[in-house]
Specification:
mainly alpha; rod-shaped; 77 residues
Length: 77
């Protein structure tokens, strides 16, 4: 009976070692996925900054052209 328990303990230890090895591989995969998400998040931030800049320029040009058109129409006889 003790021999059977000893064999079971060895099997459990082997299974634990195998699970620890697999968990290490899974952790590496999660780290890679985290890095990829960080890169995507950085790209999205850059895109958002470009869009904000584009919106400011577009708004400024629209106001400028609208003001010029209104000025010309008011001065037109």
């Amino acid at each position: 009976m003790r021999e059977g328990f000893t064999l079971m303990d060895k099997r459990f230890e082997a299974m634990q070692a195998n699970m620890d090895q697999r968990l290490g591989q899974v952790d590496k995969r999660f780290e890679q996925v985290d890095k990829r998400f960080e890169n995507v998040q950085h790209d999205i931030r850059n895109l958002q900054q470009r869009m904000d800049s584009f919106m400011r320029w577009s708004f400024g040009i629209t106001i400028g052209v609208g003001g010029a058109v209104i000025g010309v129409l008011k001065l037109w006889p």
